[in-house]
Design a protein that fits this description.
There is one protein chain. This protein is of the alpha+beta class and about 375 residues long. The chain folds into 3 domains: about 1-50 and about 160-230 and about 315-369, 3-Layer(bba) Sandwich (FAD/NAD(P)-binding domain); about 95-155, no CATH class; about 230-310, D-Amino Acid Oxidase, Chain A, domain 2 (2-Layer Sandwich), CATH 3.30.9.10. The protein has 8 helices and 17 strands. About 45% of the residues are buried.
Length: about 375
């Protein structure tokens, strides 16, 4: 069996989460190898909407609200760093985001949830409730069926494909090693080292990061960890390029830097089925047209489905193994928003630094209470 040695850390999983962690570790000077199964895996990154999003996150869990707010505030510097290191513009636009509501009751519920988060964190949590007149000052093409919106100045979006490309390129420029198209067959921990077998090759490292999305369910128990994640399907429609009409992204509609419009926001418990259904696509399109009537005459050019990685309560799992010191599990469903934190404070923790205060409650033991 061939053996690859002289590594500080092995990262398993080459989606946005794994790539951000690997990039952060390589940036800090570690010798890092990333093992990625490839496009045969159920990639959450495939269906990413590209949002850098704060509003609405953390209801009932103020630490998660703070974690996302810190990530959003780090994003401008993170985007500049990636551009300087790789020459790739991830197309960050962070001028605020909107959640549009089609009834007064929906708007009141959204506003109530955000006020609850503000009260729970006991600090600054910026948002503004806009009536239709105020909303049209920001987004003139909103339709008459919209009652209003909630605006958060911290929200924005990026190109998820450009982000992945920048992370891959930055990782390589820092000396990181990517091995695509490999499947992890076994993991052993002995004599203070992790031995990961992929086919006829054994990879040896002092630390191991499991960032394999849904694959973490099977991998985590091999190193004394737990990742009880489940898939939740989301479907997306993409239109032809149209003239710019939407500067502020929303949960349901966003216009990319190339001019295409993405429509989404379905949450379906259908197991490992990442297909599309006419009923869900029609529902998504109907809501988008009610928000922006001009979309009625725009052609859809492609659709797809992808599987979110969801824990039982919807919050991340960040945990270090006690039985196999040096092993970590990292999983969440907000990989784009949290990329700046995963490459920064989380990577520093994996390297031996202090655990960020806002993630101490994200251990898998909470599911046994």
């Amino acid at each position: 069996m061939r053996q690859h040695t002289e590594l500080d850390t092995l990262v398993i999983g080459g989606g946005v989460v794994g790539m951000a962690v690997a990039y952060g570790l390589a940036r800090a000077g570690e010798r890092v190898r990333l093992l990625d199964e490839g496009d045969d895996a159920f990639r959450a990154a495939r269906g990413n909407f590209g949002l850098v999003w704060v509003q609405g996150k953390g209801l009932g869990h103020p630490a998660y609200a703070r974690w996302n707010m810190a990530a959003a505030r780090q994003w401008p510097a993170f985007a500049r760093e990636l551009a300087e290191r790789t020459g790739i513009d991830v197309e960050l636009s962070q001028i605020g985001g909107l959640i549009m509501c089609l009834s007064d009751a929906e708007l009141a519920k959204r506003a109530g949830n955000l006020e609850a988060v503000r009260q729970q964190i006991g600090g600054h949590y910026p948002y503004e409730v806009l009536n239709l007149t105020q909303l049209r000052a920001l987004s003139p093409f909103v339709g008459p069926e919209v009652s209003g919106a909630v605006f958060c100045p911290l929200d924005g979006h990026v190109s998820p494909l450009r982000l992945l490309r920048a992370l891959f390129q930055g990782f390589a420029n820092l000396g990181g090693e990517l091995l695509p198209g490999v499947h992890v067959d076994a993991i052993e921990h002995r004599n203070g080292e992790f031995r990961v077998r992929t086919g006829a090759t054994e990879h040896v490292a002092g630390k191991l990061v499991l960032a394999a999305g849904l694959g973490n369910r099977a991998l985590a128990p091999l190193v004394g960890l737990e990742a009880p994640v489940q898939p939740l399907r989301g479907q997306i429609l993409v239109t032809e390029r149209v003239q710019p009409f939407l500067r502020h992204p929303s949960l349901h509609v966003r216009q990319t830097g190339e001019g295409v419009v993405q429509l989404g926001d379905s949450k379906e418990d259908v197991g490992l089925d990442d297909g599309t259904t006419l009923a869900q696509l029609a529902r998504i399109a109907d809501r988008a047209i009610r928000c922006f009537p001009l979309l009625k005459s725009v052609n859809v050019v492609r659709t797809w489905g992808a599987l979110r990685v969801m824990s039982p309560d919807g919050f991340p799992i960040y945990q270090a193994s006690t039985s196999c010191p040096g092993a970590f599990v990292v999983t969440c469903h907000s990989g784009v928003t949290l990329a700046s934190q995963h490459a920064g404070p989380l990577a520093d923790w994996i390297r031996g630094g202090p655990e960020p205060a806002d993630i101490t409650g994200f251990k898998a033991e909470r599911f046994h209470v």
